[in-house]
Amino acid sequence: EPDVTIVSGLKDMVVFEGDDVTFRCQVSHENARDVEWKLQDVALQNNEMNEISVEKGKIHTLTLRKVTEQDIGTVTFRVGPHTSTA
């Protein structure tokens, strides 16, 4: 299995309370496994507040819905040993 690397990392975002925000990270290969999103070192699951998806096989997205002050912090995307933060 090829080593999947991060081609295009996360970008810092500034949003207003109550808005949605989307983070994108592009990886080198489709169907990447061992992928994880975190907010403030807490692993995120796909649910009504966090939408985690993959576009075109390589672009992993995380949308945080209706953000609050408690959502301020570092977002981390990890694939295997590689990470990107914003």
UniProtKB/TrEMBL annotation:
Pfam families hit by this protein: I-set
InterPro entries, per database record: Ig-like_dom (IPR007110), Ig-like_dom_sf (IPR036179), Ig-like_fold (IPR013783), Ig_I-set (IPR013098), Obscurin/Obscurin-like_Reg (IPR052385)
Domain Ig-like intervals: 2-86
UniProt keyword list: Cytoplasm, Disulfide bond, Phosphoprotein
Location within or outside the cell: Cytoplasm
Keyword Disulfide bond: yes
UniProt keyword Transmembrane present: no
A GO cellular-component term linked to this record: cytoplasm
Protein name: OBSCN protein
